[in-house]
Every structure is written in C-alpha cells, then in structure tokens.
Amino acid sequence: MAASRTTGYETTGPAEQERVEQVLITDVLLRDGLQIEPVTVPTSDKIRLASGLLEAGLTSLEVGAFVHPEKVPQMADTDPLVAALQPGTDAALHTLVFNERGARRAVAAGARHVRFVVSASDGHSRANAGTDTRGALERLEPCARLLTEHGVRIEASIATAFVCPYDGETPPRRVVDVARRLVELGAKVIHLADTIGAASPAHIRRTVCEVRAALPAQPLGLHLHNTYGMASANAWEGVQLGIRRFDAALGGIGGCPFAPGAAGNIATDDLVNLFHHVGIATGVDAAKLVAVRDQLHVLLGRKLESALSSVPAAPVALRV
After folding, report:
1. Residue 25 reports pLDDT greater than 80
2. Averaged pLDDT, 117-127
3. Cβ-count burial 46-85 (b if 16+ within 10 Å, e if not)
4. Hey, which residues are catalytic here?
5. 3-class DSSP assignment, residue 193
6. Domain that holds residue 287
7. Does residue 10 lie within any of the structural domains?
C-alpha cells in the first residue's frame, strides 16, 4: 500500500498502514491549555510562549477563542493577541468561533484560521453553547458565510465525539451527521475530540472508521485528553488509522470548563517524544520545546501534567 504523508494542510495518497513519515501537531496551550487555569496569564507572556513554540518548530497553534469574557475570562485578550501574533508569520494561528459576533471579531482581529466547535451530544452542547447540537450548527451558518467572504480558512472540532459527561457514549452515526454538516459549512479539516478523556482505542477506531467511510476525502484530526491515561494509546491508534493531525498542549494542561471531570490535554512534549521514538517526524526541536515548558512552569507556579515534566532530563529520543 502506498504511503500517505501530511505536508502542511494537504494530504496526498491513501491513508497508509505501513510507514508514517510526518505528522502535524497543533499546540493548543494558549486556548484549551489556559482556559481553566486559576491564574490569568498576561498577554505579553502569551506572546512570549507563542513565540517560543514557533521557534521550536511548531507551525500550528490554537491561540484563543472569541467568546464572552465573563464566561471564559482567560480568553478575553484573544483580539489583541491575534492582532499581535498574526502579522509576519506563516504559521496557522487558530481561534475558536461559536457565533456570528465571534466571527466578526475574528475578521476584525485579522485572523486567518478559525475553528468551529460543535458538540456531538446535546447535553454537552447545551452546557457549552447554550443550545442543542442542531441549534449550534444553525448558529454557525452566518459565521461560515462571513468567514468565507473574507478568505478565512475554516476547520472544525466535534466535541464529545466519543463520550459525553451528560449523555454517555456518543453514537458514531451522530458524529457522522455533525461532520457532514460542518463540511457543508466549509470546514477543511474535521477534528474529533475526546473532550473528557474517557475514550479508549476501541472508541477511536469505531468512530474514525465510520466517519472516514462516510467522508472518505475529508482530512481528520484527533483532539485528545488524558483523564484516564489513555491519550497516548489513543494517539497511536489514530496513527494506525491514518490520522496525521493531532492537537496537544505543552505540559499536558487544560480541560473544558463545561465538561465535569475533564482533565488536561495530551502533552505536546510527551506526544513529540512518542513520535520521535518511533521515527515519525514532527518538525519540532525538542530541546527548544523543553525550554518553553520551563517558562510555562514558572508562569503557572505549579507542577505540570506531562510525564516528561516530572523527570530530570529529556530522553535520548527527545534530544535527537
């Protein structure tokens, strides 16, 4: 079978089952990582963290969300943050958009990449977006028109794609229905999110296979959390299924304020270590990544969640 490779945002060839050449990691530290932190990180420090991540070789970051500042105060500076970071970089700086007001703010700030977020389950959608899944999708229709008119690239994340804290396991067919609608709205990539970190490799395989069968040409990504310690196993299962796009947060921090029990994201440093150990390129300089992680540790003033942040030295594979 011919090998598949991911270069930037385009996929060439069929999903491979033999040798993986490269994956694309989007670091979501500045959004998903910081959104539930009790410490509000100043904009200047966010810029410093973003610059360090880019210097380490990451070409895709999630930097904020255009949401009401009273609901998620850590995201209140998304507008000036995007305006400061976007000029002069070719990196994809993603921001979240939930409604038309958020879309207009994204355009005004100069955003070039946005993500829609829709929950596959009604229970989480009501908690997170104030409406059921159907209502959330309908709300995005004018957003999609506005962003497309201004040449903004749209991707989409499907929250609770595997398990919901309110509704239990999410039927794969429901994920397929949401994915179809998001593609109709212009989403170039669909990211399947294990929002509460309760999925197993069996969940990943079942849902990814069903979505791919329904949308064989649609690039897919995984957004994983590590609540039950399964994130690395789920990432590896994704690799075997041909997934080449992964979200991760430096230090393994993060979680959803509207998903009870959700723990941190799969850690960027741990994920890079995993891929480098098996010979999969990430484009990331691991030594520089560790330096940024040290900055994050100081800013938050607490122990980080990644496995590598608890050991005294980087393993050989990370230093290569």
Report:
1. yes
2. 96
3. bbebbebbbebebbbbbbbbbbeeeebebbbbbbebbebb
4. 256
5. strand
6. 20-319
7. no
